[in-house]
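Posting for a labmate who doesn't have an account.
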Amino acid sequence: MNTRLGQLWWVECRLQRRNLLLAGLLFTITSMVISTILHSVDAMSTIRLQALSGSSDLILRVRPPDPEGSMSFARPMLEEDDISMLASLPGLKSHAVISGLPIPASMRVRIPRIIDSRYDVTLYTLEASAVPAELQEYWHKGSLDGDVVPMILNPQLLTLYNLGFADRYRTPRLGQDALLNLRLPLSIGRDLFGSLPHTIENHDGKVIGFSHDLPVWGAGIPQAYADAWLPVLYPDRPPQGIGPVLVTLRFADLSAMVQAQEGIAARGLPIDGESGLAQAVLQDRAVARGATMVIMGVIAVILLCAMSGLTAAHVQQRRLTLALCRSIGARPWHLAIILGGGPLVASVLGAIAGIIGAWLITPALVARAATALEYTALSVPIMWSHLFWAPLLSMIVVAIGLILALTASLRRSVMSELRDH
């Protein structure tokens, strides 16, 4: 029985190869178009978010707290051997040495039991071509055992920091090394454009401050430091209107307080601890996603009509197959396998081929668009979920088309058979 059904299915696929090739091509084009749109929307929104909320992080490894619950910050953060090695490198420059920076009073209110402390900041810049082999590995990892983290803030410069803390801070026991972030994203007064997820939908906003939900260690570096620091990092065109730099422990649940221009109450906007980017959904991204959903719905309807027509014609033309199925005692689901198996396989293979094609062409499209918009081209995210939704959509379309076609065509075939007898 199964052998006969398999033979019938193979014969049907060969007889209907033109229709199956057409169905596969239809699903390939559909899947490629939808996947390309979704990939491009995500990639371009990430690029724009990078342009609006770009950040620069400094991560320093510090000692865990001692049994008394206090934390000691090593000083100096650079070992003498490291300083000697760096001093011998060509192209190394030291800038903006600032000593005795106090902890701002605003942070003292938020952080109880803090002991008065001051810290020194030294900025080093090193030409990227002069990066020693010893630092190359850590350059990409983003951390150094010597408490130095190189970050590229200027494409032509590798930036090194020596951040020394004096005195002691009191804090609850952490149980592990803490990582400090020195970041320059979402400074106070910076404008945000677009919608904020789950908070302020479709409103432009302005950063008015920072807040946190967990006890954190942090300090705001005064504007004087930013004024001395930024011209060094951006000698040609220093950015304007940058507020205080924020220093905070990475493990903290940090948010930027965003005030909508329309007067909606300020909400917390989470900041990603790895990239320093605020995960805001841009207005054009939301519009593009909505348009994509509409396009997907329209394409699904077109696919449904096309596949229903192909399957209906297929069923009506295969009266001999129906007679053979009846002669071997085939059940209704056997008939569905014989008539719908070919379109199902063709559509799934076409959907997968379309996804692969989208992954191949999207990076070039995004790079061209980024160049035209003067954005920094980022990597195009691979949406592995497409491996599920695209074939699933094809199966649903084929199944609905098969049901509609069988319902209409079998009734017509049965009536024709009754008239013949």
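Reply:
Got it, the structure tokens are right above this. The chain has a mean pLDDT of 51.
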